[in-house]
Automatic annotation (TrEMBL):
One of its GO terms (biological process) is regulation of microtubule cytoskeleton organization. It comes from Eleutherodactylus coqui. Residues 23-76 form the RING-type domain. This is RING-type E3 ubiquitin transferase. Residues 265-323 form the COS domain. GO terms for molecular function: ubiquitin protein ligase activity; zinc ion binding. It catalyses: S-ubiquitinyl-[E2 ubiquitin-conjugating enzyme]-L-cysteine + [acceptor protein]-L-lysine = [E2 ubiquitin-conjugating enzyme]-L-cysteine + N(6)-ubiquitinyl-[acceptor protein]-L-lysine. Residues 115-157 form the B box-type domain.
Amino acid sequence: MDYNTDIIRDNSPMDNLEKQLICPICLEMFNKPVVILPCQHNLCRKCANDVFQAGNPYWPTRTSVSGGKFRCPTCRHEVILDRHGVYGLQRNLLVENIIDIYKQDCTSRPEKKKENHPMCEKHEDERINIYCISCQVPTCSMCKVFGSHKDCEVSPLQNVYQNQKIELTGCISMLIAGNDRIQTIIGQLEESCKTIKECSQKKSESVNELFVELNTVIEEKKAGLLKRISQAEEEKLKFAGSLIVKYQEKLQSSSDLLQSALQMVEQTGHATFLLKSKQLMNRITEEPKGSQLEKTEPNFENMDQFTLDIEHVIECLRNLDFSTCCEYEEEEEDIEEYEEPEEERPEGQQ
């Protein structure tokens, strides 16, 4: 990996160390005591308390140290506090010792002239070293003495810097608190979505089970009705078949009698004919009287008694819908109102 050697040369180890000792809340070097969070990031204890209080606006007081939670401003890890609040967080003595050593080293070194200091646009040789409170802009001393800000109220940069840094820190705390609230709402909504899916799945399964049960009942009813039709068909076919057999026997008997009568007609002997013709005619005459057979009733072959009227059932199925709790309560009230008169009937009344 290639590195920019100029950058490495310009950034001394102490400068890099100073960057590591900046609090992400106040943007200043850590002020003791320094607390270390479970995520291993550090904060000034005062800043940690400010973040905690900003994320818990309904806490009784700003100095309350009872339990609660807030998120690390660096990694957003949720920090759970016990009843001691931020005072229950462990101090990072190592960082505090490093800060002491760094400050001692800084006091022993000559103050380094800061580079790239902003210069005044109107007075190019003058550094911006004061703040115009009236115009709300930083400017230089020449602008105050001779320039456009000579009638304005000004203040040292350091004073305004500290005040605005405090305000910005408060804004950061508000943003963190707002983000925490939004994150909480998002979590609640995600949990709601999960619950909605679970409830929808359960209701879908319930509806499927009900329709499976409904189909089972319909199939059982269908099988019972078809069985009744088959039984009626079998009974009618059996009866009709028995009649066919009887009529075939009757036809056979009549055919035999007809054959005998035809043979008798061909008889040429007068005596022989007269001996048998009277008896044969009596048989023919008596044949219809002695063999009265059953007949089928009118429309015997029809199956009109098995006609189904299911229009009301189809209408009920079309109107099938989900019922609310209120509808169930109204139905229960109607049932109770219907049952009450039965209990109050006088004795002997039907």
